[in-house]
Amino acid sequence: MTNVFPFAQVDVFSEQASYGNPLAVVADAERLNQTQMAQLSHWTNLSETCFLLHPTEEQADYRVRIFTPLQELPFAGHPTLGACHVWLAQGGQPQGDDVMQQCGAGLIHIRRDKGRLFFCAPPLRRSGPLENDLSERVAAALDLSPSDVEAAAWVDNGPGWAALLLKDRQTLLQAKPDYVALKGMRVGLVAPVGEDGHGFDFEVRAFSAGGFEDPVTGSLNAGIAQWLLGDGIATGDYITAQGTLLGRKGRVHVQQDSGEIWVGGAVQDGITGALKL
Questions:
Q1: Which contiguous run of DSSP H or E holds residue 99?
Q2: Could you give the CA distance from residue 237 to residue 249 in angstroms, rounded to a whole number?
Q3: For 49-76, what is the mean pLDDT?
Q4: Are 62 and 52 in contact (CB under 8 A)?
Q5: Measured between alpha carbons, how far is 218 from 184 in angstroms, rounded to an integer?
Q6: Is 135 helix (H, G, I), strand (E, B) or coil?
Q7: Which pLDDT does position 209 carry in this prediction?
Q8: Would you give the distance in Å from CA 120 to the centre of its chain?
Q9: What's residue 4's pLDDT?
Q10: 172-189 exposure pattern, b = at least 16 Cβ within 10 A, e = fewer
Q11: Beta-carbon contacts of residue 5 (< 8 Å; ≥ 6 apart)
Q12: What is the DSSP string of 215-274?
């Protein structure tokens, strides 16, 4: 017997379709078990595939499970915004002003603002300075010298991110990852852009545990924002660019509001249809 599921592929953190980070979303996913979800995520071969489900917590508007081709994640940023966009497009009505998403990391607040979606950055599961020997090993694995690194910290809100703050954008763009030497770590790089008219304040790169560079990464940008703002490295709202070397134009907007950090961007429709299994 063939089962049919609503299916969408959207482009997240992009003002222009095909320049952000693609995401597959499967709705009405109660009929799928975990093995089927994992297999579908492996088949789409995107960085993440999401499955929309009925919530099990009263405050939540919907529940989402997030899979990479290799594993399930408790939280990820671009799947959070992409899943919300699809849920709203399919007629979802939030209980309050904000959308409340349930995921493995708990309840995530999502709000709409001037055509963009923003999620409230979840608490960091691990924070604080990266150990010196680990920071040096990670820098070497990225073909960076210790003098290129201004600071290093854990910015883990679920996926396990560590991040290095580099001295400038050029150094960041020249980094070359050795994924074997990284030994499965998820590592982010961030650098200030300076006042040169790019239209954004920081540049970010993200190296996944799967051995590839991620185009635009919400969870990493959320963790980095908590670090930069918490340590006074960034002092107000800012915009980050990501995906430059991959031919993308990812833009992540970071806002502060009453002590909370919100991370957001635009979501573009790509493919809508039906998935037959």
A1: strand 99-103
A2: 19
A3: 96
A4: yes
A5: 19
A6: helix
A7: 84
A8: 12
A9: 97
A10: beebebebeebeebbbbb
A11: 26, 27, 28, 29, 31, 32, 274, 275, 276, 277
A12: S--HHHHHHHHHHHHHTTSS-S-EEEEE-GGGT--EEEEEEEETTEEEEEE-EEEEEEEE
The answer to whether 248 and 186 are in contact (CB under 8 A) is no
Instruction: Please say whether the beta carbons of 158 and 105 come within 8 A.
Output: yes
Q: Say if CB 117 and CB 109 are below 8 A apart.
A: no
Confidence (pTM): 0.95
Question: Chain-wide mean pLDDT for the chain?
Answer: 96
In the structure encoding, which two tokens stand for residue 216, read together? 């635009």
Specify the residue for token string 């998403």: 101
How does pLDDT run across 2-58, given as a tens digit for each residue? 899 999 999 999 999 999 999 999 999 999 999 999 999 999 999 999 999 999 999
Tally helices (H) and strands (E) across the chain: 6, 17
3-class DSSP assignment, residue 115: coil
Report how far residue 21's alpha carbon sits from residue 32's, in angstroms, rounded to the nearest whole number.
25
pLDDT of residue 118: 98
